[in-house]
Design goal:
InterPro entries: DUF1091. It is a single chain. The protein has helices at about 1-15, 100-115, and strands spanning about 25-35, 40-50, 55-65, 70-80, 90, 95-100, 135-145, 155-165, 170-180. With about 180 residues, the protein is α+β, with helices and mostly antiparallel strands. Strands 1, 4, 5, 6, 8 and 9 form a 6-stranded antiparallel sheet that branches. Strands 2-3-7 form a 3-stranded antiparallel sheet, with no helix packed on it. Strand 2 and strand 3 form a beta hairpin. The longest helix is centred in the middle third of the chain and has 17 residues, at about 100-115.
Length: about 180
């Protein structure tokens, strides 16, 4: 009986939940948003500092459009070693232009909710998106990126994330800059 117990103890002592954890930390640097029609879609987010080292995103997302095949999403991810505007280069980790419904069933479920689900009231879907998408004012409170669903390894540097949500009546753009540093174990 104890012959099985000792190897189990050794394995559990060596296992530190490091599988699929990121080897990087992320610090938000800036965020901005622009909408062509704030009566239909408006992202209003800002940086919030808590304590000496805690930086978070806080704000609201006003959603007042019908979710259908005309709503498109695209995400471009740029990287820079210096943070200078002229130094940013497009990375292959960008999300190609796709319908919002396709986005909800993949990236939204696998990355967005796993990173922002605990700090927001954004809709959650276990399997596939089930219409309708609620028209309401969503709240984000002290959100940060925990890395779940993201690459395990990222090069240190500055990353610019440009998200574009388009609809025949409105275009919403959100830009965020984060600094990625190696995690100190």
């Amino acid at each position: 009986m104890f012959s099985y117990f000792i190897p189990l103890l050794i394995i559990s002592a060596l296992y530190d939940d490091s599988a699929a954890k990121t080897s990087w930390d992320c610090e938000p640097k800036s965020i901005s948003a622009y909408s062509t029609n704030e009566n239909l879609l408006k992202v209003d987010v800002r940086m919030e500092r808590v304590g000496r080292a805690g930086f978070f995103f806080t704000g609201t997302v006003f959603w007042n459009i019908d979710m259908d095949e005309s709503v498109m999403v695209q995400l471009e991810l740029y990287r820079s070693t210096t943070g200078a505007e002229s130094d940013y280069k497009l990375t292959p980790m960008s999300i190609p232009r796709q319908t919002f419904i396709e986005y909800i069933n993949t990236y939204y479920r696998d990355m967005v909710i796993k990173n922002l689900g605990e700090c927001s009231d954004l809709p959650r879907y276990e399997d596939q998106y089930v219409p309708p998408w609620p028209k309401k004012n969503y709240t984000l409170t002290r959100c940060t990126i925990n890395g779940v669903g993201m690459p395990e390894v990222l090069l240190a540097g500055f990353y610019k994330i440009k998200v574009n949500i388009s609809h025949p009546e409105v275009n919403q753009e959100v830009k965020a800059i984060v600094k990625v540093t190696p995690k100190m174990f």
